[in-house]
Amino acid sequence: xxxxxxxxxxYFNYTIEHTLEAGIxxxxxxxxxxxxxxxSLKGSHVTIRGNEAVxxxxxxxxxxxxxxxxxxxxxxxxxxxxxxxxxSGLIGKSKEQGMAVIPLELYxxxxxxxxxxxxxxxxxxxDKRASIKKRExxxxxxxxxxxxx
Length: 149
Description:
alpha+beta; Small Protein B, Chain: A; cytoplasm; RNA-binding; SsrA-bd_prot_CS; SsrA-binding protein; SsrA-bd_prot
C-alpha cells in the first residue's frame, strides 16, 4: 500500500473520530496521473448527492505523457464507491453539528486507487495552537535525542 497523496490540512483542521476506506471512479489517464503523484487533496471534501458519495475539489492533473484532452477539468467531482450501509452512516454523521467528511489520503491498494475518508469535527483556534505546540515539542525532543547519540 503506497500513499499517493495526503491531506495534511485535513488532519490539522479536524479531529478525526472515525475513518473509512472507499474506492474512487477515475478515468484511465487520471489513474496514471495519480500513481505518478500529481494529486492534491487540499481543500477537498465529500458530499452526499442522493444515494451517492461524491469527492469534490480534489485536483488530479492531466497525465503528462498523454495527449491533450479537450474539456478536461482537473477538479471535477468524482464518485466514491461505498455500499448503502456506509453511505447511510456518512449521512447520519455529516448531519450532526460540526461534523464533516473529508478525504485524508489517496493510496494504492492491490493496483486499485482508494481514498481514506475521515469523519471529524472542526478544531477551534486554540486546538490548532495546541497541535502546533505539541509538534514543535516533539521536534525539539527528537533533535535533543539525535544530538546526544
